[in-house]
Amino acid sequence: MPKKSTISFFLICIFLVSATFYPVDAYITKPGGAYPLKPLVTVQDGDQDDEGSMSLMTIGLAKATPFTYAWAKVSDEQKILQSNHVRNPDEDDEEYTVRQLHLMSQSQFNAIQIAFEKAGKPYEITTKGIFILNVLPNGAADGLLKAGDRIMQIDGIKSSDQQSLIDYLNDKNVGEIITLKIKRDEKLELIEIELKPIPSDESRAGLGISFSEDKEITTSPTVKIKSEEIGGPSAGLMFTLEILNQLMDEDLTKGYSMAGTGTMKDTGEVGRIGGIDLKVIAADKADVEIFFAPDDVLPEEVLKKNPSLGSNYLEAKEMAEKIGTKMKIVPVKTVDDALEFIEELEPKK
User: Fold this and answer.
1) Which alpha helices (DSSP H) does the chain contain, by range?
2) Which residues form the active site (predicted)?
3) Burial of 345 (0-12, 13-18, 19+ CB in 10 A)
4) CA 109, CA 124: separation in Å to the nearest integer?
């Protein structure tokens, strides 16, 4: 018969393994790193002799375990996020990854467009179809389509934008069969789908998918961005500044280590992102000197529910003061705000 000490030892081992590896329904975020953009962004024949640098910021995100959850509760550099604050409803791990990478692709698209507009350089936009982000369980497309597929045609008609797909399906009824031409893994396929009620509105027929337009931008000079392993749209502002820096003869860095965060909209506006306080910590550890933060305006309905919530800039400034960094936090509502700050900045001696 095993000794009590042996049984206790095994029970402790089981507890420690469970606490370390058993996942719970939450995520842990922590400071990531600063990634210099020059190795990631290449503008053909672009200016490369800058003395400073521009970097994008990341945060670490991992599924929580009992141990990491408990540690995050007492850590100043980790935060707990519930799953519904990270993933959309009915979104699995693969679909989450596909959505994050697509958001990164969209941020690059907007960054290139805005940078070329500011530099007065030519570009052309083409559509690549409708990009599928998520397939709802028990919807018409469940088991037939998957995240990452592109819808090229519907019943032989080119489908290049979201509205054309929505308008076409609005005239259809439950039980009707449509034929989609899709691109999957660079191969074209024809798939027949019997329309079902939309889970959110059973009075309408649909495919049971979430989607977005997929566009491509062609420029002269050409731009190549390597960011296959980085997801999300938050690097949009910094991509824009780095592309502009290479398009222009002048050194926008002026010898400083610059970083920042914020989405880039097709209007040039800089959008709010999550985890900016953790990115400030990461930037400080990377010896960043100037940090651009979205100075977003929160909607009144959001402020009513969360009266203590502030703009990204205020969050970043508060964390900067808390950790005692000498890094300058710069508020930006648009890319022009960042460019105006740079124009007035004295070169580093």
Assistant:
1) 4-21, 66-74, 93-119, 162-170, 236-247, 276-285, 300-305, 312-323, 335-344
2) 234, 279
3) middle
4) 11
Contact 153, 183 (CB under 8 A): no
Predicted pLDDT at 203: 75
Cβ atoms of residues 232 and 32 within 8 Å:
no
- Residue in 234, 257, 311, 333 annotated catalytic: 234
Read off the amino acid at residue 14: I
CA distance 192 to 318: 54
Distance CA 21, CA 16 (A): 9
| Beta partners for residue 183, in sequence order | 150, 188
pLDDT of residue 213: 87
Q: Are 149 and 180 a contacting pair, CB within 8 Å?
A: no
* DSSP class of 272: P
Question: Tokens representing 167?
Answer: 């308008």
Whole-number Å distance between alpha carbons of 200 and 141: 15
pLDDT tens digits along 96-128: 888 888 888 888 999 999 999 999 999 999 988
In the numeric block, the tokens 């028990």 are attached to 138
Query: Is 279 annotated in the active site?
Result: yes
Domain regions of the chain by residue span: 31-85+220-344, 126-215
| Alpha carbons 41 and 242: distance in angstroms, whole number | 7
Active site annotation includes 234: yes
Instruction: List, for the chain, all residue ranges whose pLDDT scores fall below the cut of 50.
Output: 1, 9-11, 13-19
Preceding amide of 347 cis, omega within 30: no
Q: Which of 118, 279, 317, 333 does the annotation list as catalytic?
A: 279
The fold of 126-215 is Pdz3 Domain (2.30.42)
Q: Contact 159/151 with Cβ under 8 angstroms?
A: yes
Per-residue pLDDT tens digits for 161-215? 788 888 888 888 999 999 999 999 989 999 999 999 887 677 788 899 988 888 8
Rounded to two decimals, the pTM is 0.84
